[in-house]
Amino acid sequence: MEAIKRTIGEKLKARRAHLGLSLDESHVATKIQKNLLKSIEGDRFSELPSAVVVRGFLKIYSEYLGIPAEPLIEEFNELHGSDSVGKPVITQSFSSSVSIFGSGSHFKYAIYLLVLVILSFSVYFALSGYSQERTESKVSTITAE
Question: Are the beta carbons of 38 and 23 closer than 8 angstroms?
Answer without folding.
Answer: yes
